[in-house]
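Following up on my earlier message about EPZ. Here are the inputs again, as you asked, copied directly from the submission form:
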Amino acid sequence: MGKYIIEGQRKLRGEIDVQGSKNSALPILAATVLCKGVSVIHNCPRLLDIAATINILEHLGCKVKREGSTVIVDSTDITRYDIPENLMHEMRSSIIFLGAVLGRLGKANISTPGGCEIGLRPINLHLDAMEKFGVELEEGHGRLEFTAKNGLKAATITLSFPSVGATENIILAASTAVGTTVIINAAREPEISDLADFLNGCGARISGAGESTVVIEGVKSLSGTEHTVIPDRIAAATYMGAAAITQGSVTLRNIIPSHLGSVISVFEEMGCDISINGRNLTLVAPSRLQRVKTIRTMPYPGFPTDLQAPVMALTSVAKGTSVIIETIFENRFKHVGQLARLGAKIMVDGRTAVVEGVDRLTGAEVVSPDLRGGCALVLAGLSAKGTTVVDAINHIDRGYDGLEDVLSSMGANIKRVE
Ligand code: EPZ
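Thanks, got it. Here's what our run produced:
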């Protein structure tokens, strides 16, 4: 397991290109299973989760090759409909293959994804939706066997919670189902719109993606297409955080500022000066961050749960006390104990964290509890006095393409040791 060695208290400055979105590339790569042909996906970040997804595609019979940040998938011949335990567990979000495999083959055999570091990750909304498509489910020995005897039938599906993954699985299953499917209370994340853009490029008929009601008119079959993945809004905000916590400045090139609405208002409340010029965003940090009265994580376009941990690191050195409420996942405060080892003063009660800003963090040895919690520890280490060692950074490699290279380009003293 690799670790980062960080010498803190260096002001970070720079201009960076933000990686392609992990949470857009994953469902789009899964969606290629629906297409009889070759798909060319540009701006695919180099991540462990992407590598795991490519392993699953190859297991199913796809031919996949990577040329720089472009991944080419030939899914003409899909030979299998099962995803083995080891591949399912390499990546939590492998459940996203369900809709695509069912849509292509009418059958799917997967293992229950199992919980992860941030919560149980139930899939009831996915299963209820598949049953509405006329899919039969048999459970046993940790495996789920899905069969659509007479093919997938369109349905009107109301989600009790705007689940990102469930919305994506329904869109995938509905794309080649017979009839018109309507999703009510769909997730509105930009990654949903990007998936729909990819599928429409393959010949699907999806409208309303990005809104709460999505309509998918099933088509007979899908071809491949060429598509460029949107920039990663969570990675973008992470680098904004690196500049903000070190009194520095950063220009992000080629992002989509409208994807960062609720995030920009939080950074401005902390005293950052943010200017937008087309697809570029420049942040200039204040000499001392101000507290944020209340942050409540919400489905898009609310404040994203994936930024709860990184922003908590920022509030831990802000002037004043901030309140952070995590409404999406039930176990997403595992970075609090590690931040406390660096000197942060945080009290947790259920889903609420009260962060009393301190003048200075001090370096220590800490362990990444999960992907975004690991990022929070890196940001805190950039600010802390002395040396911070962040262990178990394999979690971070799941979601960030060369984090240490980007931070080093901004002037950070960060080394990766295996
Ligand atoms: C996606 O996960 C993202 N992952 C997550 O990013 C992100 O945090 C999350 O959406 C919320 O924005 C990918 O896109 C690969 P959900 P997903 O279904 O689809 C409950 C990261 O760090 N729920 O919207 O799993 C669930 O337990 C990752 O990049 C059910 O109860 O999120 C959670 O409490 C972490 N039943 C809430 O809904 C279900 O059937 C949100 O889950 C499905 C979900």
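One observation from looking it over: The chain has a mean pLDDT of 97. Hope that helps, and feel free to reply on this thread.
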